[in-house]
Write a structure and sequence with these properties.
By secondary structure, the chain is α/β, with parallel strands linked by helices. It is built from 3 helices and 3 strands, in the order βαβαβα. It has one domain. A 3-stranded parallel sheet has the order 2-1-3, covered by helices on one side. Strand 1, helix 1 and strand 2 form a beta-alpha-beta unit. The chain is globular.
């Protein structure tokens, strides 16, 4: 499993969890830290990443769209 950590979470999570989830990334590393949620959603879908966020918008969006991001 690979995670995409949202901007409201510490970018240090990538290195802290690297042993368990080595291909995870933070939106900051992609230049998406100030982008609209749709940009992160699209990147996650295209790269088979699970979004990790404290932002309720992503949770709401999962009800509207397929929860597997497909």
């Amino acid at each position: 499993m690979k995670f995409l950590f949202d901007e409201n979470l510490s970018p240090h999570l990538v290195s802290a969890l690297a042993d368990l989830y080595p291909d995870s990334i933070h939106v900051r590393d992609l230049g998406l830290e100030r982008a609209e949620d749709e940009a992160g959603w699209t990147h996650a879908r295209e790269h088979d990443l699970v979004i990790v966020s404290k932002d309720a918008d992503f949770h709401q969006r999962s009800f509207v769209r397929d929860t597997r991001l497909r």
